[in-house]
Amino acid sequence: MSLRDELRALRTGTALCDESATVALRLSGAAAFATLDRLCPIALALQDTQLKPTLLLCEDGTVFADAYVARDDEAYFLVCEGPSAAELEAWVRQHATGPELEVTRLDGSHRWLSVHGPFAWDLLATCLGGDVVGMPYLTFLRGASGVVCFRAGKTGEFGYELLVPNAEVEALRAGLEQHGREWDLTRVSLAAIDHCALENWFFNIRAEGKAGLTPLELGLQWRLTPGKDAVGSAAVKAHRASARVTCLVSEGAMSPGDVVTHDGAPAGKVLAAVDSPFVGKWVGVVLMDLPLAVPGVGGFVVGGHAARTSSPPVINNRSLYVSPQRHTWADRDSSEFPPLAL
Amino acid sequence: MTPVLMAWLEHRAQQLARVRRVLIEDLKVQREPDEIDPDAPLFGTGLGLDSVDAVELVVSLETEFGFRLDDDALARPSMRTVNSLVDLVMRKTGGSHVAP
Fold this sequence. Notes:
The complex is a heterodimer.
Chain A: H1 3-12, E1 15-17, E2 22-28, H2 32-39, E3 51-57, E4 63-72, E5 75-81, H3 85-94, E6 102-105, E7 110-116, H4 120-128, E8 140-142, E9 148-151, E10 159-165, H5 166-180, E11 186-187, H6 190-199, H7 215-218, H8 233-238, E12 243-250, E13 259-262, E14 265-276, E15 281-289, E16 300-302, E17 305-310
Helix pairs in contact in A: 1-6, 4-5
Chain B: H1 3-25, H2 51-65, H3 72-78, H4 82-92
Helix pairs in contact in B: 1-2, 1-4, 3-4
């Protein structure tokens, strides 16, 4: 299976991934909310089964974890990429606001599977039940046999992250693959998921997130609530950014670390890049000096190739046009769907 | 940087400021202008607008900038981030979203 085939499944059909860089904790007890509230720089007004995307910050304002917080009745899931489960548990305990905090690591008892694509909901409904179809974005569903289904993908298409008890993993995966034949279900890698995340401008803590930047440079202020006091938020407030991540598109290859020039002078540095088959060009995350961190500007050179800034996302996602109320898998080749390239 | 590019960047910055003002004053986004990231998603995550806000946003943009937003093929991809809205405004107001 080539990366291109994996990307096509993710962008137009259904895709199953059993690789994951995600770790989860379950927090309960009287100090659970206060501890999370101290750690998360976003306001945590959550209803049961609702998720909120945020960041966990270091004291210096750089990013420790790319996080979702989900309310599970009187407890919470803390779902993160970046730290290991042990590092995350230690981080939470270090910042606990009181002794009545129970922290349960789920890495030993559960595994992650994920299903993606504009018709992922159609396939998942056959395996987890019809309630999947009506799930709002950023909610979770308690399924049978302890499976928790989070609707929170990072590809720009319908995405469902499944937290599965170890004893149920093989049966669920087999069920998905058996039913998935009807949907041309394709196994995809984490690299393919990361590729789509970049095209859709989702933050990737394993790429640009390794550059030691604050939410100001990363364009992630929306993951913080203004005025909220949390770990790292004071450092972010005091910080003045001189550069910001910007989408750069080029006919030629670019790689992390490449210097981007404008009028012959250094203007930025590539933090991550992919060769997008749907766009037909390379797409890069560049830390660009602020005066030129604007989409629509040409005259850049990277890796010896001309380049231009652009407004991400660079994909016209099929999932924007697929409606569970109006479409089924049989409509996948419908001419009403516009091309993926903008 | 050429004077032509500097002028285009200045014009785009002004349009970005107007779009941010629409988001704050009409859509009640509870942030200062410079706290609204230009590449922030408008709906779902990001600024957290919903389908009701989408209607209000179209009406507010049409009022603020004096154009009609009736081409769905153009509108839907343009309603994804603050920057893509500014690109739309640049095109609809007789300019170009691409610098000369």
